[in-house]
């Protein structure tokens, strides 16, 4: 009797199993398709050049379809930057300075003259942009002057080139007008956040607690897998910095 009662249930047992396996496979496949679709649809192409004596990372981001480009932090070596721009046939729409320290803006003039691009910065760094020669002198160096900004950026602005877009995050603390730029799966962090470190805060307009707050409020809310592309040094991810950056993890006391 017991055996007979168990049989109908046993007969049906494979059905929920099949449904579960099918559903799991569907969910996994949907994830894979979504991922590859996102990769396929991500219009952002990227070139990095290390420029100038202070080894600034200059990034050229562009949409391969329209060839429209944004140059981030052309700090020096204009000819090298223009070589990439011309080699790829790019139309530079914007030059964006993450902040106006002289090592990040030194080639603004030449890139602007050669491409006709608009120069964009945050207004709070306008005085710094006007005083690049004085800044460089503090380091015993010389620096060319920069043209004035064509437009000021504020938190939440979207900068577009073709189908790619970068969102402006206002992250003061390294300088008064520091910004980061968030794109699809990446964030350009200027001198706010580095792999394993943060920007210095002893220069005019710098403030340690302001910088820590900026990073925590606007960068640490990004997904762990977001690639961090900073103004100097190697790339990282938000997750790695969340776990290992001594200025940001629980042990830091901030
Ligand atoms: Zn700086
Ligand atoms: Zn720098």
Task: Tell me what you see in this structure.
The structure is a single chain. The protein is α/β, with parallel strands linked by helices and 254 residues long. The protein folds into two domains: 1-41; 42-252, Ribonuclease Z/Hydroxyacylglutathione hydrolase-like (Metallo-beta-lactamase, Chain A). The chain has helices spanning 2-12, 14-41, 78-87, 102-105, 108-115, 126-130, 132-138, 208-219, 238-244; strands spanning 44-51, 56-63, 68-72, 91-96, 118-122, 151-153, 158-161, 164-170, 179-182, 186-190, 193-194, 197-198, 227-230, 236-237. β11 (193-194) and β12 (197-198) form a beta hairpin. The longest helix is centred in the first third of the chain and has 28 residues, at 14-41. The model is unreliable at 1-10 and 31-38 (pLDDT under 50). The structure holds zinc ion (2 copies). The site of one zinc ion has 8 residues, from α4.
Write the layout of secondary structure elements.
Elements: H1 2-12, H2 14-41, E1 44-51, E2 56-63, E3 68-72, H3 78-87, E4 91-96, H4 102-105, H5 108-115, E5 118-122, H6 126-130, H7 132-138, E6 151-153, E7 158-161, E8 164-170, E9 179-182, E10 186-190, E11 193-194, E12 197-198, H8 208-219, E13 227-230, E14 236-237, H9 238-244
The structure holds zinc ion (2 copies).
One zinc ion is lined by residues 54, 56, 101, 103-104, 191, 231-232.
Query: What distance lies between the first and last C-alpha atoms, to the nearest angstrom?
Result: 69 Å
Written as H for each helix and E for each strand, in order along the chain, the element string is HHEEEHEHHEHHEEEEEEEHEEH
CATH topology of the largest domain: Metallo-beta-lactamase, Chain A
In this entry the ligands are: zinc ion
Strand order of the largest sheet: 1-2-3-4-5-6
Describe the largest sheet.
6 strands, mixed
Structural class: alpha/beta
CATH level 4 superfamily of the largest domain: Ribonuclease Z/Hydroxyacylglutathione hydrolase-like
Number of domains: 2
Q: Radius of gyration over alpha carbons?
A: 24 Å
Please tally the helical runs, counting DSSP H or I stretches of 4 or more residues: 9
Q: Tell me the CATH architecture of the largest domain.
A: 4-Layer Sandwich
Given as residue ranges, the uncertain stretches (5+ residues, pLDDT < 50) are 1-10, 31-38
Q: Which CATH C-level class of the largest domain is it? A: Alpha Beta
Mean pLDDT: 89
Q: Roughly how much helix do the residues carry, as a percent range?
A: 25-40%
Q: Which term fits the overall shape?
A: globular
